[in-house]
Amino acid sequence: MQLRDNGLGFSLITIALHWLVAALLFSMIGLSIAMSLEVSEVQRMDLERLQNLLGTVLFLVSLYRFWARISSYHPLPVGTPNPIEVIVSRSVAVALALAMVLLPIAVWLSRSAAGQVIALPGGFAIPALMDPNAQVQRVVDVLFNIGATAFLAGLALHMFGACKNHFVLKNNALKRMLGKHVEL
Ligand code: HEM
Questions:
Q1: How confident is the model over 122-150, as pLDDT tens digits?
Q2: What does the alpha-carbon distance between residue 109 and residue 65 come to, in Å, rounded to a whole number?
C-alpha cells in the first residue's frame, strides 16, 4: 500500500484523512447550528462536549496531515491547468491544512484565557493552556475571526475548484480524491 503521496498520486492515507477532516468539520458546523437552535441547557452542554471531542480529533489528525502535506510531493495535476491555477490551488490546499491546526489552537487558547473548561464526554476535560486573561482572549478572538473568515473563503474556492474540474472540465481530479486510479 502506498503510504505517502508521490508525483503520480495521493496515498490512501491522504485520501482517507482528507474526507475524515471534511466530515469532522461539517459535523462541527452542524453541531454549532444545532446549539444555536432552541435546545435545553443539558442538551446544549451534551452537544458542546461532542463538538469539543470532534475538534480534538480534528486537531490531532490535522497535525499529522499538515506535516504529511508539506513533507511529501503533491501529485501532478489532472488535465492541463495553467501554472497559475496549479500554484493557487496547491497554496489554498496547504493553507486549509494549516488552518485546521491553527484554528483549534486559537479556540483552545481563547477558552483557556476566558477561564472556560473544555469538557469532553465521559467527564474528561482538556487542560487549560494558560491562566485566565481577558486581554489575551480579546486578541486571540480577533485573530480567530480573521483566520476563520479567510479559511471559509479558501474552502469555498477549494470546493468551487473541485466542482469546476468535475462538472465543467469533466476531468478526474475529484474522482482521484475519491480513490480512483488515474493514469497521468
Ligand atoms: C466537500 C468538500 C471538499 C471537496 C469536494 C474537496 C475536493 C478536493 C480535491 C478534488 C482535491 C484534489 C486536488 C488535486 O488533485 O490536487 C483536494 C485536495 C485537498 N483538499 Fe479538499 N475538498 C473538500 C474539503 C476539504 C477540506 C474541508 C479541507 C481542509 C480543511 C481540504 C483540504 C485539502 C487538502 C490539504 C488537499 C491536498 C491533499 C491533502 O493533503 O489532503 N479539502 N480536495
A1: 999 999 999 999 999 999 999 999 999 99
A2: 21
